[in-house]
Write a structure and sequence with these properties.
The chain is an alpha/beta fold. It has one domain: Rossmann fold. It contains nine helices and eleven strands. It has a nine-stranded mixed beta sheet with strand order 1-2-4-3-5-6-9-11-10, with helices on one face. Strands 7-8 form a two-stranded antiparallel ribbon. Helix 6 runs parallel beside helix 8. The longest helix has 16 residues. The relative contact order is 0.12.
């Protein structure tokens, strides 16, 4: 065999990192973003085209954050799939397909926030951003692709979204903006902004808004009207009660003792206040959401530190909580 040592080397495409052998890594072209994006998907062994299952979309920034068992020291070598399989083995939950989309730049530096970015040019060509139209990507590209290529039950009563921290803010935002698409939405330590003026604006002095990581998504200077259009508390306050009633809302937040840097306690309380302002009932008991959705399949969405909130009887008066006057926000300011 003759080797031409002078020939230029051809760079092979990098293979995706395998964080968990149970997960498939899928790449497809997104017309909305104008480039190829990847997501990860877990399909239980007993799910196939003849035995389909609901789909749950866990949101964070990078898709690896749910499945990398060594993402941080708290994981103890486990990931969310291990938690799911433990619950399944205990008979507390039924078959679920878990879809882990990337909602940030490929290097996880720029969050897409599942919005059509106001200033994608500020990303300076960061990989994975493309046109910056992450809302169109999620709703029009990703969900239809998953439901046409994998054995999921393709209807809203069998579709849910959940997230942690910024992922929690995204999860409740997408469900509030498109309640026709989801049976349930969950947020754990969601980074919600404070809604003002009956949901028409956000608190300008909120330190989260000023974070430079949101320059691409929210514009410079900040487009506060755009932010209010995508912030879950605002969208909930302005949404139709009839539409909100179709979603089971599951909200959990960390202890007050860990404020202000390791908990979104006050922001979670504000989100619940907005849900209650829409005449929502706090149904913090086992099975509150299970009866409303195929997603719980004999399991329970309730935890001792979780408030599962679902829409109840509606009345016409809308009294939105004023974030500058609520005790939780006054206490947050005092503790800074």
């Amino acid at each position: 065999m003759n080797l031409d040592l002078a020939a230029p080397l051809i760079a092979l495409p990098a293979l995706p990192v395998v964080y968990d052998e149970r997960v498939r890594h899928v790449t497809f072209f997104s017309p909305a973003l104008g480039l190829s994006r990847s997501f990860c998907i877990y399909i239980p062994p007993d799910v196939d085209d003849d035995h389909r299952a609901p789909a749950l979309y866990p949101l964070r920034g990078h898709k690896r954050e749910w499945i990398n068992p060594f993402e941080d020291q708290s994981r103890d070598g486990r990931n969310v799939i291990d938690v799911y399989e433990d619950l399944r083995a205990a008979g507390r939950i039924g078959p679920l397909i878990l879809v882990f989309p990337g909602t940030s730049s490929d290097d996880n530096r720029i969050p897409g926030m599942i919005v059509n970015m106001r200033a994608p040019h500020l990303a300076n060509g960061a990989p994975g951003i493309g046109s910056g139209r992450f809302a169109d990507y999620f709703f029009n590209d990703l969900i239809p692709y998953v439901e046409s290529h994998f054995p999921v039950i393709a209807r809203s009563r069998a579709r849910g979204v959940v997230g942690f921290s910024l992922g929690g803010a995204m999860a409740l935002s997408v469900a509030a903006r498109r309640p026709d698409l989801f049976a349930c939405a969950g947020a754990y330590d969601g980074t919600f902004l404070y809604a003002c003026n009956c949901g028409w604006s956000v608190r300008k002095r909120d330190r989260v808004i000023a974070n430079p990581m949101f320059d691409d998504a929210c514009g410079v200077p900040r487009d506060l009207a755009f932010i209010a259009q995508h912030n879950a508390p605002n969208v909930i306050l302005r949404g139709r009660r009839e539409d909100l009633a179709g979603v089971a809302w599951i909200v959990a937040y960390g202890p007050e003792s860990q404020e202000p840097w390791q908990s979104n306690y006050y922001r979670g309380k504000h989100l619940l206040a907005c849900l209650r302002a829409r005449s929502c009932q706090c149904a913090g008991r086992p099975g509150a959401a299970r009866r409303r959705s195929q997603l719980a399949h004999g399991g329970s969405v309730h935890r001792p530190d979780t408030a599962a909130v679902r829409s109840g009887a509606a009345h016409e008066s809308l009294k939105a909580p004023d974030p500058d006057q609520t005790p939780s926000v006054r206490e947050e300011r005092r503790r800074r």
